[in-house]
Amino acid sequence: MSTPHKTNPALFYAEGEAPGAPGLKGARCPGCAQVVLLQPAACPRCGRRDLQPACIGQRATLGESAPVFHSADGFEAPYTIGLICTEEGPRTFAPIAGEPGVPLPVGQRLRFRLLPRDDGRIGFAYAPEQP
Amino acid sequence: MKGHEVFITGVGYHPFGRFADTSLKALAATAALAALDDAGIGVRDLDAAVCANAYGGLLNGQESIRGETWLRGIGLGGAPVINVENACASGATAVHVACMGVASGQYDTVLVVGAEKMFVGDTSRTLAALANSADTEVMGGIGLQFSAVDAIRVREMMAEEDLDAGALEWVTVKNHSHAVSNPIAQYRKPLTAQQVRDSRMIADPIRLYMCSAISDGAAALVLSRRPGRGRVRVRASVLGSSPWRLEADTLPGPTLAADRAYEMAGVGPAELHLAEVHDAVSPAELMHYRELRLCAPGEVGRLVAEQATTLGGRLPVNTSGGLNSRGHPVGATGVAQLIELTLQLRGEAGARQVPGARMALAHNSGGWIGEDPAVSAVHILESTGSGATA
What we know:
The complex is a heterodimer. By secondary structure, chain A is an all-beta fold. Chain A is about 0% helix and about 40% strand.
């Protein structure tokens, strides 16, 4: 059985692709402990070039979010995009899974979720953490 | 600025709008020839040209040598042509490169042309091209349109500044009223707040009439070591990339660029008489008030209440109509901002004239990386001649 393609192969790990997956692709500097999104060639804080890959962002909190009313990338409007703040520090934009058009509060705790897409690929979204 | 003084001695444009039968080459040539005429020089007087465009490859099928193809048609040959691509800040980036060329002494006279042709008969292609102005590994394929990025940032600002939707409508109406007398502008009809409020929601709280539209157009400048007509001098030319936000108090990219520009020019925001800022959605202008230090944090609402940034106010912003009303043919935008400021500093802005204008700032942003625009450019211009009458 072939592994489904991911919408953003450089951005996230699917299950089994890394310890702690699924989650976002990040890197940790062994020198200064800085954690960053993606896997850059050098640490933006201290310049070390041996950053270690890490799965991050399994948990996050929501910053502001906005309901979007124009479909794009296979997302049928309305859907929600939010600024998420990962537990490890990096912040990025991400799709927010929830009731379409129903805003979530700033500070809402979120979990990373893989999201099957209509075109057969695997995407991701952040969903409200269940109590 | 370090090195030789740099002056804007000529401005020219092709109006912004929808021009189905006009090629990208023709748009650029119209603006370039008008700028040469305004400067009173010919193409053979040019030492170099810098050309700005963002989507000519994706939308018009011309890669690699866009500027050479544009300027061949106006008789330029032999002189160096530098092509610049830097998302929505391509125009200001081209001006920055040209300033370096003149200030360094490498060139005496440089033509800057920014042009874009975005109407290609398929709006979805144009929107897809625009979406490429982000790190596509991170922001591609997740349903993220720039309007959503702007909506999220505007929501942050509304919460921090205690603003309501009325402020967003006000700034949209203001800029549309400014564009009425601007011959470059794509939209020259005034809007009412009710019309803005009734337009459809794009990404809450951004409505359709708050968004800059797809546009065709071109803008051009002549930069020179010699003052020329109007004696409009470039006091600062600053270009920055998105900062790494490793500390909680890291300043936003536009603020870092503005601070460097104020330092380079040796002036502060209180000495400005007007500004053109990057309102790809009109409410973004409100964010830029504080990002560019036109007001302190917490004072955006006061500027709105006082209508300080409208024509006749104490610091008019986007007298051209801004991106929202003047139009946003991406490669031309940063150049068009400097055309507006040059006309204002010469006292030639007609019904839009800011009385006594002598010092002005332009802010042009492009793309998105991390938590900031990928590019932030700030220019400060000064009239060293008789300028606008008070």
